[in-house]
Amino acid sequence: MTFAQYAMVQVRKAKGLNKKINNPMDRERKSLLDFCFIIAGSGSLSLRAWLSKQLWKQENCGLAKIEHAKGMYALYYDETQTLGYKGIVATPESTEVSCSSIRKEETLCAYLFVNHEAYSSYCKSYNEYFSWVSERNEARFRGTMNHGQGYDAKNMMHTIRLLQQAKEILSKSELQVQRFNREELLRIKNGAYSYDDLFVRSQTLFAKILIN
Predict the structure, then answer these.
(1) Are residues 68 and 149 in the same domain?
(2) How many domains does the chain have?
């Protein structure tokens, strides 16, 4: 059972690798501004697009929190740059928007929504992805890319082998080191099967192990 549990951990890792390979991230990191939206009628418009249409700069904007409305802000604009507005973000690396002191007589320009949850999720994915890029075994990664199936074929070959051995241990009470299906395992190692096919196969083997 320890063999089988370890193998399924490797299957989940392979799924993560498959996702990373098929969904690469841009090296240029997005800013919080990319997760800000202007409420427009019954819909929304990206803040960047809205500012561009207005020919406005985010540095000249002033925000005021709206009570009881998480992520919502009233947006004001200062063309004269004399009102002391802090802008929407202080720097491109800011993880929070900046709020300004707004005079009562100033004219409201728009309502801004900041999707903090999406930004937080993006930052986590970005950090995980580029940690993987910096730590991966490049030779093995090149092999993965060359066979074109989008998964670590050598790792999946060992995973299937371990699950087969676990099933044999439970059903026959013996460990068969020499594999009767060596050619099939080599085909897996060479990327002859899709990730989905191997994933289903691993799940089927694990289910049989649980029955035993």
Answers:
(1) no
(2) 2
Residue 16 pLDDT level (bands cut at 50, 70, 90): low
Q: Are 19 and 200 in contact (CB under 8 A)?
A: no
**What end-to-end distance do the CA atoms of the chain give, in Å?**
10
pLDDT tens per residue across span 130-178? 887 776 655 555 555 555 555 677 778 878 888 888 777 777 776 666 7
Note the pTM of the prediction, 2 decimals: 0.61
Residues 29/95, Cβ–Cβ less than 8 Å: no
Residue type, position 180, single letter:
F
Q: Which of 5-9, 26-30, 43-47, 204-208 has the highest mean pLDDT?
A: 43-47
Question: What does the alpha-carbon distance between residue 177 and residue 161 come to, in Å, rounded to a whole number?
Answer: 10
- Residue 40's domain comprises 32-121
User: How buried is residue 131: exposed, middle or buried, by Cβ count under 10 Å (0-12/13-18/19+)?
Assistant: exposed
Alpha helices in the chain (DSSP H): 2-22, 47-54, 116-135, 138-147, 153-172, 182-189, 195-211
- Rounded CA-CA distance 45/81 in Å is 25
For residue 150, the tally of other CB atoms under 10 A from its CB is 19
Domain boundary among 89, 121, 153: 121
> Tokens representing 48?
């960047």
